[in-house]
Amino acid sequence: MTRDLWDDEAAHFDDEPDHGLADPQVRSAWRELLLEVLPAAPGRVADLGCGTGTLTRLLTDEGYVVDGLDLSPEMIRRARVKVPEAEFVVGDAARPALEPGAYDVVLSRHVLWAMPDPAEAFARWVELLRPGGVVVLVEGRWSTGAGLTAAECEEIVRPLLKDVWVRPLPEPVYWGKTIEDERYLLVSRSSSRGAPAPDDSSRGSRRGVGSRP
């Protein structure tokens, strides 16, 4: 989608339960999911494709310092209203104009699949991380054929980061409705120090190359 189309979407973007997180149960589910995999606050987070700033708001409330970036000026305008204490930049997530090596976390939800070259964009995202920094991706493959399967996303991530961990997200509580397509969380970290992947016994499992949800 173009910048103008995303600007047009901004007025109704938060109407989707997983976008606006207006439902307390949906918001709580995302809060718990993200706090399980993020390093402890305070930490600096790059929210790429931040939209109207809902996840920026959620993480700021938990003590993180968040910089949001989105292609749409109208999305960013709304994000600044929603989270006035955060920093927001209008920019292209394919080439994020953020400080390299400055972030403990790079967070992106349903953005990587839309990049013209997802592998190239992801390499740029990795450059934003401090040693031991964590990448948190929420992606999926929709019934329309758009998106990235978990296996495809792993193929992009594994050459650059380690300890790749994938958790399928089929539960309606994350989306405010029943879904039939593939959606998942992928977590990985850069070399050197950093929080390990979440405990396999309670939150999914680490999977080898070529494995499937």
UniProtKB/TrEMBL annotation:
Q: Which species does the entry assign this protein to?
A: Ornithinimicrobium humiphilum
UniProt keywords (A-Z) are: Methyltransferase, S-adenosyl-L-methionine, Transferase
Is this entry keyworded Methyltransferase?
yes
Asked if the Swiss-Prot or TrEMBL record annotates the protein with the keyword Electron transport, the reply is no
Pfam families (UniProt xref): Methyltransf_11
Gene Ontology biological-process entries = methylation
Coiled coil, from the record? none
Q: Which Gene3D superfamilies match?
A: Vaccinia Virus protein VP39 (3.40.50.150)
The molecular function terms in GO held by this entry are: S-adenosylmethionine-dependent methyltransferase activity
Region (Disordered), start-end ranges: 1-21, 190-213
Quote the InterPro entries the UniProt record gives.
Answer: Methyltransf_11, SAM-dependent_MTases_sf
- The name of this protein is Methyltransferase family protein
Cleaved signal peptide residues: none
The record places domain Methyltransferase type at 47-137
Tell me which domain of life the UniProt entry assigns to the organism this sequence originates from: Bacteria
